[in-house]
Amino acid sequence: MANDYFLIKGDVYMFGVININKPTGLTSHDVVARVRRTLSIKKVGHAGTLDPLATGVLPIYVGGATRLLEFAATNKTYECRIVLGSSTETWDAEGDVDEALSAPPVVDKQMVATALTAFVGNIEQRIPKYSAKKVGGKKLYELARAGEAVILPTKEVTIECIDLLSLDTDEATGFPVVTIRVACSTGTFMRTLAVDIGEALGFPAHLGGLIRVQHGQFSLEKAVDLAVFMEADEPQQYLESPLPYLAIPVLSIEGDNPMVSALCQGTNVLERHMITHAPRLYEQVKRVGLKNKQRCLLATPQAETPIAVAEWRNHALKPAKVFVNQSQ
Q1: pTM, 2 dp
Q2: Domain encompassing residue 52
Q3: Does 327 have pLDDT greater than 90?
Q4: Are residues 116 and 62 in the same domain?
């Protein structure tokens, strides 16, 4: 079995996640490329795409940690600036204005707060026409640029809460600007939300600015600016263990336990064997209440070194992804 758990740069152990504060103007792929160059490492990936207009939390997984990307927490929190009184082709500030009122709309906080209540819970959202979603084998933005009319597909998303932070006036246009904080599920389009809130108020609107302040347990307060990371003498100092940020249970087991060898060789670990040979692991399985086909990560308790992702199936742990090479 190939060991791709770690990558080496000199004598530096490369495994972890970096909480990057993405600047405006860069794509998420641009950030990945910069991290790759800074660390001289190929295996780099990001969790949760941010549009170039957006700033804020962008978790970057490095080395063998990229194999844990699919288990990253997906809940997110944003601060959105919504401009009322004008709309754009792209539904955000990057597009050309396609509709604008001749005078600033009149709106107060109570009107906005009332409108926001309709967007809490499970809602259907239109997917923006300037997005990578495919319709008939073509991406929506390709159809939009070609001038083709298309019925926008919809998707169900969950908005846990929306808080009205402020209602201000844009100094340049005199139009009102609503700033809200949104906690939502993955895949929620803030551009769509901005347009829909405007429609609920009876005005054209677009997303004027976007900051992701939370992604799972990653927060903006603890994020490092991309420029600071790239200019650091030892950028590896910003690497953290990804284990505390995962959306699956993390169970500990001593690395010298015979159950570890079994898992790393692709052998299922039966419940009755766990009770005898790994009672502490079995106690954790029972405590977290693993359900059939639910996955967990097994790791060493001291160094938090990942051993294997396993699936609880028919009263046994079935290895799905192995990190430690026991053949060496």
Answers
A1: 0.88
A2: 7-73+218-244
A3: no
A4: no
